[in-house]
Amino acid sequence: MISATQTLQGETRDAIVVGGGLVGAAIAYGLQRQGLSTLMLDEGDIAHRASRGNFGLIWVQSKGLGAPHYQHWTHGSAQAWPGLAEDLSEATGIGVGLHQPGGLHFCFSDAEMAQRDALMGQLRREAGNAGYEYRMLSVAELRDMVPGLGPKVVGASWTPYDGHASPLHLLRALHAAFQRAGGHYRPNARVEAVTAAPHDFSVSLGTAIVRAPRLVLASGLGNADLAPLVGLAAPLRPERGQILVTERTREVLALPTHVVRQTDEGSLLLGDSKEDMGFDTLSQTPAIMRAIAQRAVQTFPWIAELNIVRAWAALRVMSPDGKPIYDESERCPGAFLANCHSGVTLAGAHAHLLAPMIAAGALAPEMSPFSARRFDVQKAA
Amino acid sequence: MFRRRPEARPAPRDRLVDVYVAGAVVRVPEGASAAAAVLLSGAPAIRTTPVSGAPRLPYCMIGICFDCLAEIDGVANRQACLVPVAPGMRIEPQQGPRAARPHHNAPEAA
Fold this sequence. Notes:
The structure holds two protein chains of two kinds.
Chain A: H1 4-9, E1 15-18, H2 22-33, E2 38-41, E3 57-58, H3 68-92, E4 103-107, H4 110-127, E5 135-138, H5 139-143, E6 155-159, E7 163-164, H6 167-180, E8 184-186, E9 193-197, E10 200-204, E11 209-212, E12 214-217, H7 223-226, E13 237-246, E14 260-262, E15 268-270, H8 286-299, E16 308-318, E17 325-328, E18 335-339, H9 347-360, H10 377-380
Parallel strand pairs in A: 1-2, 1-12, 2-8, 12-18
Antiparallel strand pairs in A: 3-7, 4-6, 5-6, 9-10, 10-11, 13-15, 13-16, 14-15, 17-18
Helix pairs in contact in A: 2-6, 2-9, 3-6, 3-9
Chain B: E1 16-21, E2 24-29, H1 34-41, E3 47-48, E4 55-56, E5 69-72, E6 75-79, E7 90-95
Parallel strand pairs in B: 1-7, 3-7
Antiparallel strand pairs in B: 1-2, 3-4, 5-6, 5-7
């Protein structure tokens, strides 16, 4: 019998995905579905774990202004989501709590409404043939959609593409489906070193070395250090977001909004804060928590009488322009990189669109605007 | 099943208050918790869980387990073990998740 250690040292796969969060797991699941024997490496709980802190929106509206490729990508992911959820449920029996009734972004003044309308109109123009349906809704129309609006709400924008799902159930379902399809998952596997040659990558995990002709870096903020090892760049910064969770209530909100959503289990999640706190997810900032609560209550005053039972902070994976980075290495063909702050929204695209490109060996030409080369000043000049 | 420990509170200071547990009058010592009143009442359950609907009674009595959730004087989802009784207090079962009350006059935001 071959010992585990010998097996590990000789382990060769068709693809290695570094990162076991929503991005890595969606890609690894997609690669395995393409018939590639795939190894997913997960650093462990010392990693920053953005996927565990995700709010759970599938959010299309307001994404990709002035960047039609990003709007198209996000829209495509929202369209891929029902198929993804169904596949995952069939394969694993895990429901991810997907609902796509469209989503609401509230405005609190006529000026905000006009500004929002202008933004949505520009998105529609930039969508071209792909189409971009949206409506600006008055308070009278909103009253039929959501209960108990605050007196300061003037209206909202709505697109039919938005929705929400449980990030934790999604993460679990992706892992389970990946492994059931024959994928190999290795937890507590921190990448110590990478040796790169064209279509030949060796990854040292300290006690073991694994090899594959394809290497996908999907380790969130960890990509910043890994990317240069294969001739890529990942200029990323952590942007902290906090979330407050109320006690469970009976179903009250049928639609997700950009600041409040109700989970299948009944909790209301309140969020959408942005802070520059470096890598700190532990220090509390009461002013931010207060602002989150106040904005939720301004929108829905009845939230004020609900108890807050949990709160947490997590780090968004932000590029300099806030858009995702997808790249392939020129120096080391076979090496790919994926970074975004929308692990739930883009899960459909990662599993169903990006993974087939990586399996085929090259990103499609329409992905080129996502390359980190856009941050290269000399090339941009 | 549950009864008061006679030695716990000396007789002269043993002032009693009447509260209602699911509508039934229960006489408990002043300073006792609403959860103690629930246990003394003999009620079979004070809450059902939001997910499976399983019946629950107070368990830890120290604010940890949340199995004593009750609607106390009209306020949903209170931990009864952390609420001292008051004369005339109404302790009603918490059936599954509480209702949010969008059409109730909620307090204004601070």
